Amino acid sequence: MSGSVVLLHLAGAVALMLFATRMVKTGVERAYGNVLRHKLRATMRNPLMAVLAGCGLSVALQSSTAVTLLVGSFAGAGIVSGMSGQLAVRGAEIGSALVVKLLTFDLTLLVPLCLITGTVMFMATERRDWRQTGRILVGIGLLILSLEMIGQASEPLRNSQLLPVILNYFSSDSITAYLLAALITWLFQSSIAAVLLMATLAGRGLITPELGFVLILGVNLGSSLIAPMLTRSAGPEVRVVPIGNLLMRGLGSLIILILFMTFKPHVAFLGATASDQIVNAHILFNVVILLAGLPLAGLVYRASEKIVALGTKPAPATLDVVELSALNESALDVPSQALANATREVVRVCETVEIMIKRIIELYESADSDKIKALAALDDRVDRKHAAIKLYLAKVTKNPLTEDEALRCQELIGACVKLEQVGDIIVRNMLVHVKKKLERGLEFTPEGWSELCAFHTSVLANARLAFNVLVSRDLETARQLVLEKDRLRDREKETSASHFVRLRDGTAKSVETSSIHLDTIRDLKQINSLLASMAYPVLEERGLLGGTRLKAS
What we know:
The protein has helices at residues 3-43, 47-61, 64-76, 82-103, 110-123, 128-154, 162-172, 174-188, 191-203, 209-230, 236-263, 274-310, 335-365, 369-396, 403-440, 446-472, 475-504, 508-512, 514-532, 536-541. It is mainly α. The longest helix is centred in the N-terminal third of the chain and has 41 residues, at 3-43. The radius of gyration is 28 Å and the shape is elongated.
C-alpha cells in the first residue's frame, strides 16, 4: 500500500474520531445541557465540590474546553467566583483525562451495541430527549470504531523506512515535538482526540514512551490555548478563568518539559505498555496541576486578572442606542409591505419573549432585586410593542385586503396577543414564585429541580419552533410543534406524579416548595400551549387541523 493511501486512511479515521467526539458533546448539550449547567452552579460554592463538578461535567461533555468556557461565562456573570472557577477547570482536566483512559480499554463489543441502540432510539421516536440519547450512543459507537480504524490504518507504517527517521528526529528535538503536539491539539480543538491518537499510535509501536511523554505535555499546552483564543473578544470577566487555566496548565507543561529534558527520568513506572504510559502520563500531569493549583488558586486568579487588564482596551465612546420600529406609517397604503413590517416587529417581540423565558428559570436559582426589575422591564417592552402592533394592523385593515392578506393580518394579531399573554404569565405568575422562594429561602430537591429544568428546556425549544413557524409558515415545523405540545402534556403528568411521590415520602424540601413546583409546571405548560397555538393557522390552512386535535396525515 502506497504512503499516500495509508495517510488517506489515517486522515479519514481521525476525521471520524473528531466528528464522533463532537456528536457526543452536542448530544449531551442538547439533551442535558441546562440541567448540567444548573448542577454546576449549585455546587461551585464549595472548592472540593467545584473540582468534582468540573470533573463530572467534563466526562459528560467529553470536553474540558467546553467546561472552561461555561465556567468563564458564569464568572463573567458574577454567578461564581473566579477562584471557584479555576478549581472547576482543574477538575474538568481530570475528567477529560479519565475519559481518555476509559476509551483505551477494549470496548469493541460496544460498537455494534451503541450503533444499533442509538439508531433505533433516534429513528423510532420523535421525542427530543430520546433522539438526543440515541445521538449520544451513535457518537460513542463511532468514537470507539474510529480508534480501531486509526490502529488499522497505522499498521502499515510499522514497515515504513521514513517514519523511524522522523521519530528519531523528534526524539532528539523535544521542543519541536512539544510545539507540534500543541499545534495538533489546537487544530483538533480537543485534547481527548489528540491523546487518543497518540496512544493508539504508541500501541502500534510507532511512538516511544519518552517521545509520548513530551507529546502529552504539548497536548496540554495546546488544550490550554483553545479557550483563551475562543474568548479573546469576550468581556474581561469572562476571560479571567481561561487565562488562569493557561497559566497553570500551559506554564506547568513547560516547566515539566524542562525538568524532563534535564533529568531524563524513566517512564516505565507509568504502565506496562507504551499506550498505557502515555495515557497515565496525561492523568498524572493533570493531577499534579490540580494539587499545585489548590494552594495557588488565589495567586493565579490575581495574576489572570492583571494579564486580562493589560490586554483590555479602554471602552470607546459609543452613540446612544435608539430602538427603532419597523412599523412604517408610510407603508400602510401597500398592505403587503405593511404586513411585512408588522411581521418584523412581531419577530422582535418573539426575541424579547425568548429572553424572558430563558431568564426566568435562572432567577429561580439566583435572584436579586435588580434581575427581577430587569425582567419586569422586558415585559413592559412587550406590552408597548403589542399595543403598537395591534394599532398598526388595525390601520392596515382600513385598506382593501386579499383573502391571504386578511388571514395573515389575523395571524399576526393572534400571535402578538399570545406573546403578550406569555409575558404576563412570566411576570405576574412565575416572578411571584421567584420572590416567594427568595424571601422564604426555599430550595428545591435535586430531583424536583432537575424535572423543572428539563420541563423548561422543552418549553424553550418549543418556543423557538413557534417563532420559526410564524416566519416560515413551514408545515412540518407546525406539525412538530403541535406534536410536542401533546408530549409535554404527558411529561407534565409524569412530573406531577413524581412530585407527589416525594410528598408522600415526606421529603422536607418537596413539602416546602410543593406549591411553587406545581404552579411553575402549570405556568410553563400554559406558556407552551399559547405558543403551540401559533401553529394552528398554518395547519388549518392545509386542512390538517380538526376541531380540537391534530389529524393524522
